[in-house]
């Protein structure tokens, strides 16, 4: 109780809205501390049937700088509350909100496509908004070209934009990506469907006036079978133009197996790789060890167990010594575990099982 209120406010800033409310009711000192703007820097708001948003906190929501909004899409009342939170967070008009992450909970009703939530987000954004990061990876709805262009036009200060969500199809074409790059010149971190890329997008990224690209997240799914593959030479040129660039790749189960080799080009500076295809990945694992040994830090594999896979993983462990995480969701041999623990000094956690267990499998933490 003798902690300075400034320190308490900093601690409270990392609490969810529900926990902030609980802390608010503890005592007078904590209640006063909750009025500090720094207590609201980071705030997570959950809108569902189990968590209500106290109306008394509406005056504090404009103080939030980093907002994570989780909304249950099952009930219309929860969606309405989520839109109210967005309006309150943007109501200050002084550009405090810099980071916004939207996450949807539950299963959406039949034929519900999230139009009210997406349109509500566009409505609260003001022209020239100071929003610097927008994360929509937790939104399960197809994002349209018009929506993405509208957000980019309203938020020219964006530095991070993630639209690589878990929708069934990619709704953003390459020309929209090019428009976003023009509207948001400071953009240095982008999450996309790989089907949204094209040779023209890469030419824009190669422009001398383009802000240095730091991170590229790509989700590879069924839409890639209709897209023109990006040549390895183009990846090599982008890598030379943006030397600090790292790429996080996710290949999901809808990606046809024949298209996997075209995605895993050797010149991509892959930092994180998720092979979630549930196909025979022996050749791909060998390719990963040969191509990404100097960049790979995290690997996730969902495939079928075999002695050949064990041998390939042991070899990969000796090649990709920068690995910090490895998760293989099939049974492996004890030699695989020994190899990763021996050859990867920075390994922090891994999911490697020598026998089947009930799901979800738990990972092992080393540090």
Quick take:
The chain has 13 helices and 13 strands.
SSE pattern, N- to C-terminal: HHHEEHEHEHEHEHEHEHEHEHEHEE
Radius of gyration: 23 Å
**Sheet with the most strands?**
13 strands, mixed
Helical residues, percent: 25-40%
Give the overall silhouette: globular
Mean pLDDT: 90
Quaternary structure classification: single chain
**What structural category characterises the helix and strand content?**
alpha/beta
Strand content: 15-25%
Number of strands: 13
Given as residue ranges, the uncertain stretches (5+ residues, pLDDT < 50) are none
The spatial strand order of the largest sheet comes to: 1-2-3-4-5-6-7-8-9-10-11-12-13
Distance between the termini: 32 Å
Number of helices: 13
Structural commentary:
The protein has 13 helices and 13 strands. Helix 4 (76-90) packs parallel to helix 5, helix 6 (145-154) packs parallel to helix 7 (174-183) and helix 7 (174-183) packs parallel to helix 8. The longest helix has 15 residues, at 76-90. The protein is globular, with a radius of gyration of 23 Å. With 367 residues, it is α/β, with parallel strands linked by helices. The model has no long low-confidence stretch (mean pLDDT 90). The chain has a 13-stranded mixed β-sheet with strand order 1-2-3-4-5-6-7-8-9-10-11-12-13, with helices on one face.
